[in-house]
Design a protein that fits this description.
By secondary structure, the chain is mainly α. 58% of the residues lie in helices and 0% in strands. It has one domain (10-86). It contains four helices and no strands. The longest helix is centred in the C-terminal third of the chain and has 17 residues, at 56-72.
Length: 91
């Protein structure tokens, strides 16, 4: 279920390089929770950047976050296509 705040605050949940791993994990969970029709494109685009993270755990969590968004609502299928077309593979 998406959480709606009435304003677009989701960029505050974008991960920063110096964020500890546990903070990044929480931010990824929050990003997938606040994703909706109006911001899914921007959020999934941001998450695709994290897939290439040098930290394998972070990469996997980013993939899971995109998966949660894709499973949450069918209208995000087009946004999810952007992720799959990037061509990253997390082993």
């Amino acid at each position: 279920m998406s959480v709606h705040f009435g304003v677009q605050i989701y960029p505050t949940f974008f991960c920063r390089m110096n964020d500890p791993s546990y903070v990044k994990d929480l931010k990824l969970q929050l990003l997938s929770a606040v994703a909706d029709e109006s911001n899914a494109y921007e959020i999934v685009t941001e998450l695709t950047e994290y897939v290439a993270d040098i930290d394998e755990h972070q990469s996997r969590e980013a993939v899971r976050a995109v998966g949660r968004i894709a499973l949450e609502a069918r209208f995000m299928c087009q946004t999810f296509h952007i992720f799959t077309s990037v061509g990253y593979a997390v082993g």
